[in-house]
């Protein structure tokens, strides 16, 4: 990536995509921390209405969160308006310094980057101001092989990438990483592939001559149920202990359906940031305390998954808490 | 880790964060035990954590008891003993509950 805008004076837009929990935010957070994207305006899109990623990306001065709709479908108009505002702001600033030249869009894990790129190209205003310079897709070395076998969306994300970031390469066995690299090369032979560990670049093993996995055809047989986000408000009677017991049982029984859980929960130790990808729960991180309006998002958990009814989640959680409900 | 029994062998489970001091940790264990008892009601299994020995005690109706280290192992063993997973979203578990 270059720092300047393109030859025609358009802003460069970098799209960072990847399946749920693939490490997009971790990578972006590291880039911001290392100062690589300091001049960029960062837009974070989350499918759920409760943003969590902005808590992680505090380093960026210019950060906007578009929550409550995936930018490739429901939230597309919101994204286009945000981009138009940026174009407007830039047009009013001087061209000889300090002008915004780069935008980074982190899509939600459920977004297909293709419609976003198409929409920007089709917009009569944006097409003159913004050029999509790079689509970076994070691919989780631990879980991507499974996603690619079953999720058409995961394949579409990989197929459209200019650059693939193979994340968590230290956590997966070497032979799995090599096999996945070959599978990715089969899906998208044109993309650059680099490995990362917690956002930092990492060496990848040599996959020359390895045959990639032939992925099964999708579409035969019953189609998988659609993935949807559910927001759970943790009421007073549901404390961290009840929630942790419930979530551990849920992930044990439904870890293949519950793709992602994230949220901030207030505990005696402070605000805990909880994140899970399928059955793997990261060690909860204690966030700095916040006051005022922003803390309203605390105790709000987002569960992204399929194969269950949204109302059953809160019902089940209440049953764990021993809350009596009407029969 | 306890120097007598070597327990627990690994760092704390994610479910055991959230308490600041020993008293808070003990309270959280009692609370966890109460929640597990409620959830296991009607399954023939019982959970107990008196706060003295580490881990959670999981007992069958016949009285045989095992100690599990954390909730992950707890659900795994409960599933083994019941012969089916305890699915918090199954109609069996939810019964006739209707939640808004």
Distance between the termini of chain B: 44 Å
- String of helices and strands of chain A: EHEHEHEHHEHHEHEEEHEEEEEH
Portion of residues in helices of chain B? 25-40%
Q: Most extensive chain contact? A: A-B, 40 and 35 residues
If you had to describe this structure to a student in words, what would you say it looks like?
The complex is a heterodimer of chains A (327) and B (100). Helices cover 31% and strands 26% of the residues of chain A. The termini of chain A are far apart. Chain A has ten helices and 14 strands. Chain A is globular, with a radius of gyration of 20 Å. Chain A is an alpha/beta fold and 327 residues long. Residues 1-5 of chain A have low confidence and may be disordered. In chain A, strand 10 and strand 11 (270-277) form a beta hairpin. In chain A, helix 6 packs across helix 7 (152-160) and helix 9 (240-254) packs across helix 10 (310-321). In chain A, the strands form two sheets. Chain A has an eight-stranded mixed β-sheet with strand order 3-2-4-1-5-6-7-8. In chain A, strands 9, 10, 11, 12, 13 and 14 form a six-stranded antiparallel β-sheet that branches. Chain B is α+β, with helices and mostly antiparallel strands. Helix content of chain B is 35%, strand content 11%. Chain B has helices spanning 22-40, 71-82, 91-94; strands spanning 46-48, 56-59, 65-68. Chain B has a three-stranded antiparallel β-sheet. In chain B, strand 2 and strand 3 form a beta hairpin. The N and C termini of chain B lie far apart (44 Å). The relative contact order of chain B is 0.14. The mean pLDDT of chain B is 85.
Keywords:
heterodimer, A: 327 residues, alpha/beta, 6-stranded antiparallel β-sheet, 10 helices, 14 strands, 26% strand, globular, disordered N terminus, B: 100 residues, alpha+beta, 3-stranded antiparallel β-sheet, 11% strand
